[in-house]
From TrEMBL:
<feature type="transmembrane region" description="Helical">
    <location>
        <begin position="242"/>
        <end position="265"/>
    </location>
</feature>
<feature type="transmembrane region" description="Helical">
    <location>
        <begin position="271"/>
        <end position="290"/>
    </location>
</feature>
<feature type="transmembrane region" description="Helical">
    <location>
        <begin position="297"/>
        <end position="316"/>
    </location>
</feature>
<dbReference type="InterPro" id="IPR004254">
    <property type="entry name" value="AdipoR/HlyIII-related"/>
</dbReference>
<keyword id="KW-1133">Transmembrane helix</keyword>
<comment type="similarity">
    <text>Belongs to the ADIPOR family.</text>
</comment>
<keyword id="KW-0472">Membrane</keyword>
<feature type="transmembrane region" description="Helical">
    <location>
        <begin position="170"/>
        <end position="193"/>
    </location>
</feature>
<feature type="region of interest" description="Disordered">
    <location>
        <begin position="1"/>
        <end position="25"/>
    </location>
</feature>
<feature type="transmembrane region" description="Helical">
    <location>
        <begin position="199"/>
        <end position="221"/>
    </location>
</feature>
<dbReference type="Pfam" id="PF03006">
    <property type="entry name" value="HlyIII"/>
</dbReference>
<keyword id="KW-0812">Transmembrane</keyword>
<protein>
    <submittedName>
        <fullName>Progestin and adipoQ receptor family member 4-like isoform X1</fullName>
    </submittedName>
</protein>
Length: 392
């Protein structure tokens, strides 16, 4: 059997004796044995027309009325081994027979081969992982990840990538597990029987699911065949998931932290935070770079730190046991963002952390820690607010 690389291959005439043809840019000659004279009335032309994506094999001259055109998209790793053998006495490649049929059977041949090729391709997605320079430009966002990139895949191909290792596996699995955990624990996520606050608990539940769902879908389908347009839509959904967490989830800490302030100041700070949330949503979804997306949430972070400082004073509100969780929430989130932005540690070990332990993997785990602490802080604050607190 022989593997053929995409290249231009010259036609060769076969007449009487075995003839060789040489694919360009290939060092191996392939011999096509003699075809019996009883089957052929004149020279048989075997032509191989190759381009970057597919091979076309044309066998003509079998009879004046018979002509076979095989065009089945042979990839580099596919061999002539998959061409079925039929009758003896027909031309062969190595130990496999190439046969000709009348034009009415050619469509059936193409259909069967296309099905076999599709199954072969889907079953070997892992073997087709790409280097960074082979991946689309919009997926080359980390210059220190050299390999393990998935090729462009269909929707089903992206789903199948859950079951083999590539450089997005850790990113997908970490937030998929977080999503599953949140779904399983939904009935006991909050002490519902103790909470007397309207609306906010349901906002918190949405904030608990949103980042994992958006991130999971984004990382799973980022190499979808829809191309850059589909990728940008998925990225926006990922950003919206983050925004929901920082708006609906973190707003409870703002609400509790300002509960003991004078009425006008209390509602003023809350309203300002919501306005910053709307500004952040617009800036993040229409950002033209990763740094713009990160800095679009900067004012939200500053507002939360401001309210955290209020909580440390006698004017601050909120459950006393929630304070440490509020601090840890911000610490994990900021640490993860800095690690992801600076590409540490793969910056120090280029090409060594392509699959696991790179900055984005670490950031995913730290974000989970941050949301866990946010949930524990909110749980305490809900209890405090339900018991009276300093609600103005």
């Amino acid at each position: 059997m022989y593997n053929y690389k995409p290249s231009n291959i010259t036609d060769t005439n076969i007449s009487g004796n075995a003839t060789k043809f040489s694919p360009t840019n290939t060092n191996k000659d392939v011999e096509i044995p003699t075809v019996g004279t009883s089957s052929i009335n004149k020279d048989v032309n075997v032509g191989f027309s190759c381009d970057k994506e597919n091979y076309s094999t044309i066998i003509s001259g079998v009879n004046s009325s018979k002509h076979l055109h095989l065009q089945n998209g042979f990839p580099e790793a596919l061999t002539v081994d998959l061409i079925p053998a039929t009758r003896k006495g027909n031309p062969t490649f190595g130990n496999k027979t190439i046969f000709w049929k009348t034009a009415c059977n050619v469509r059936k041949l193409r259909s069967n081969f296309k099905e076999k090729f599709s199954n072969f391709s889907e079953a070997n997605d892992q073997s087709l992982l790409l280097r960074r320079d082979q991946s689309p430009i919009y997926l080359q966002f980390n210059p220190y990840i050299f390999k393990g990139y998935r090729p462009i895949l269909t929707t089903w191909g992206c789903i199948r990538s859950l079951f083999y290792l590539h450089n997005e596996t850790v990113n997908i699995v970490t937030h998929a597990l977080a999503l599953m955990y949140a779904l399983i624990c939904l009935p006991t996520l909050l002490p519902w029987h103790q909470i007397q606050i309207p609306v906010l608990p349901y906002c918190h539940v949405v904030a608990t699911f949103a980042p994992w769902l958006g991130s999971f879908i984004y990382h799973l389908f980022m190499n979808h065949e829809g191309g850059c347009k589909t990728y940008m839509k998925l990225l926006k959904w990922d950003i919206i998931g983050i925004w929901i967490t920082q708006t609906c989830g973190a707003f409870t800490t703002i609400y509790a932290g300002t509960a003991c302030l004078p009425l006008l100041l209390c509602y003023g700070v809350r309203f300002m935070y919501l306005m910053f949330c709307m500004k952040a949503l617009f800036a993040a979804t229409f950002a033209s770079s990763a740094w713009q997306r990160r800095t679009s949430f900067l004012f939200l972070l500053l507002m939360r730190l401001f309210v955290l400082c209020i909580r440390l004073t006698t004017f601050g509100g909120g459950h006393s046991q929630a304070l440490v969780h509020v601090i840890m929430q911000e610490m994990w989130s900021v640490t993860g963002a800095v690690i992801s932005a600076t590409h540490v540690p793969e910056r120090w070990l280029p090409g060594k952390l392509d699959i696991v332990f790179n900055s984005h993997n670490i950031m995913h785990v730290l974000v989970i820690f941050g949301v866990m602490h946010m949930h524990w802080a909110v749980e305490k604050d809900f209890t405090w607010l339900s018991e009276g607190g300093c609600i103005p």
